[in-house]
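[recover] target loaded
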């Protein structure tokens, strides 16, 4: 990163002519966003900054331009609404592959449509509004690939949100569909694979060659870099027809396809399974359409257990999520800055973040100052006492729930031991009666507690 060079090789940074920040909307990434922001903050004014992104809102683009202009130097925003290869969107079910939009010829997010009405959902798909389906209704990858091959929509990048599932789906397609390449293409693959393995004999028994012979491959962080580079070369030459990849392939790798397939509109996160953001979907869809080769690119959304056509339509037609600063200076960054600058200069560097700029320019700083003035009138001792009492109430509620559970168990156990096996109906009635009165006792106790 620029920040790392600044502190370890300061002369190298000062000799740079330009810093190119591709996929600049990654500034919004929870873990990686701070790197993009730090690179702008640390770059000397003499270095030209070129930030590129295809998935920014107009407001965010203007705000980022103003921010770089304020902390780095004169900055110009260059807009382009032209996509070299237009995209059409499809939806794959177990029985069909249909256009997602009502107008089957409608291209997605094309020039001149930024102010137009959102495309309507295809009525054929709208008839079935249910979002959740049974496992048997989800199309198998081999079925989806078969339809794409029949319609001439290969090569394909098939996005899957799990390394294990990438490998599993690649094997399934190779087994169920057989070879996807012609005899002459297979001869070329064999020749190139033999040459590759002659220099890397230890990779021969990895299981990858079997897939490649059939025009199929997996691509994710669990695969050795040598294999990934070889797979990318074959894919770009049209010798691999389908690559099953994690979403990391959507950023930073020049590997366009005629079609991108998104296997689900949800992915696992720290908070469970969440819907894909419009920005993430755009990033993956953007790999479709090869400049100079395809007149139109294709995006295919696959019916999943969690989401159907309506949810896919909602995500695809939403506005891109606004950018928020993810700048998170760690101890290493702070210590590196302090090595080169005074305490006051270091503070000023850290205050150049995009988040701080937005905070000040949107007037949120004034709101915060007003809130701080209001808090001045609050007695801190009373506030501390209130917080302590709230915590005590929370603990008492927890203890009360434990006591209630114990009482229920003891009463029900006592009733059950006094009944014979033929008294099942009476046992059920007794349970209902006992639980009702335990609840009444608890409510009375709670009322006394609060009085």
């Amino acid at each position: 990163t620029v920040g790392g060079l600044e502190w370890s090789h300061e002369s190298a940074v000062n000799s740079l002519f330009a810093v190119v920040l591709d996929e600049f909307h990654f500034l919004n990434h929870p873990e990686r966003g701070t790197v993009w922001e730090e690179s702008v903050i640390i770059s000397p004014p003499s270095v030209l900054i070129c930030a590129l992104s295809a998935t920014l809102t107009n407001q965010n683009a203007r705000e980022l331009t103003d921010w770089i202009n304020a902390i780095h130097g004169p900055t110009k925003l260059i807009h382009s609404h032209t996509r070299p290869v237009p995209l059409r969107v499809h939806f794959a079910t177990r029985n069909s592959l249909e256009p997602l939009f009502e107008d089957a010829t409608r291209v997605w997010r094309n020039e001149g449509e930024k102010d137009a009405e959102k495309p309507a959902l295809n009525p054929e798909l709208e008839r079935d509004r249910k979002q959740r389906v049974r496992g048997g209704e989800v199309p198998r990858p081999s079925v989806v690939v078969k339809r794409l091959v029949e319609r001439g929509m290969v090569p394909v990048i098939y996005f899957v949100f799990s390394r294990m599932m990438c490998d599993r789906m690649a094997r399934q397609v190779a087994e169920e569909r057989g070879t996807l390449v012609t005899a002459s293409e297979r001869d070329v693959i064999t020749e190139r694979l033999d040459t590759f393995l002659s220099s890397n004999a230890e990779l021969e028994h990895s299981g990858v060659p079997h897939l490649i012979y059939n025009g199929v491959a997996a691509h994710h962080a669990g695969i050795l870099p040598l294999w990934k580079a070889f797979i990318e070369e074959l894919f770009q030459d049209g010798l691999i027809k389908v690559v099953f990849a994690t979403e990391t392939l959507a950023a930073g790798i020049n590997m366009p396809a005629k079609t991108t397939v998104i296997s689900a509109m949800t992915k696992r996160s720290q908070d469970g399974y969440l819907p894909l953001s419009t920005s993430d979907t755009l990033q993956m869809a953007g790999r479709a359409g090869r400049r100079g080769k395809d007149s139109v690119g294709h995006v295919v959304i696959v019916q999943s257990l969690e989401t159907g056509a309506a949810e896919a339509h909602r995500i695809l037609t939403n506005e891109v999520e606004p950018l928020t600063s993810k700048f998170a200076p760690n101890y290493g960054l702070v210590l590196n800055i302090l090595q080169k600058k005074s305490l006051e200069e270091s503070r000023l560097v850290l205050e150049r973040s995009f988040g701080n700029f937005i905070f000040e320019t949107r007037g949120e700083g004034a709101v915060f100052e007003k809130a701080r003035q209001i808090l001045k009138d609050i007695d801190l001792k009373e506030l501390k006492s209130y917080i302590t009492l709230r915590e005590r109430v929370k603990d008492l509620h927890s203890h009360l729930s434990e006591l209630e559970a114990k009482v229920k168990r003891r009463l029900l156990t006592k009733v059950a031991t006094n009944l014979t096996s033929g008294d099942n109906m009476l046992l059920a009635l007794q349970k209902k009666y006992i639980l009702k009165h335990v609840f009444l006792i608890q409510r009375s106790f709670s009322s006394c507690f609060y009085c």
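[recover] notes: The mean pLDDT is 79.
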